[in-house]
Amino acid sequence: MKAAGREVTIVMVEDDEGHARLIEKNVRRAGVNNEIIPFTNGNAALDYILGPDRTGDNIQNRYILILLDLNLPDMSGIDILEKVKSNPHAKRLPVVILTTTDDEREIQRCYDLGANVYITKPVDYDSFANAIRQLGLFFSVMQIP
Fold this sequence. Notes:
The structure is a single chain. This protein is an alpha/beta fold. It has one domain (10-141): 3-Layer(aba) Sandwich (Rossmann fold). The protein has helices spanning 17-29, 42-50, 77-85, 104-113, 125-141; strands spanning 2-3, 6-7, 9-13, 36-39, 64-68, 95-99, 117-120. The chain has a five-stranded parallel β-sheet, with helices on both faces. Strand 6 (95-99), helix 4 (104-113) and strand 7 (117-120) form a beta-alpha-beta unit. Helix 2 (42-50) packs parallel to helix 3 (77-85). The longest helix is centred in the last third of the chain and has 17 residues, at 125-141. It comes from Rhizobium rhizoryzae.
């Protein structure tokens, strides 16, 4: 996956080792060979995405796709989604929610906050591969001002 000719980095925020391996396997099976940087907690992921100062200044001209679990040890994925989508530099980054929760209200809340795709675990491989491919298309046409 490339955006404007640049390589896209996949940031995976998932504290369950087994799920993380499964997600990575599915990403690879979908034919996506981009670098995957795994995080097991929200703070470390936010440091990487928005920088330790959380300004998001570090993200300009970087292309990141976020795979986000909602249930993390140190904060909820909703908090991360809110912080990313409310940051002027990061708000256009695509976020795929991967979680065991299929609560309608939570799903709606994620979409309201700006999530691009919501996938319930255990991940149905075909819908996951399809979502990743669609985001690949999304990246290829995405223009970052």
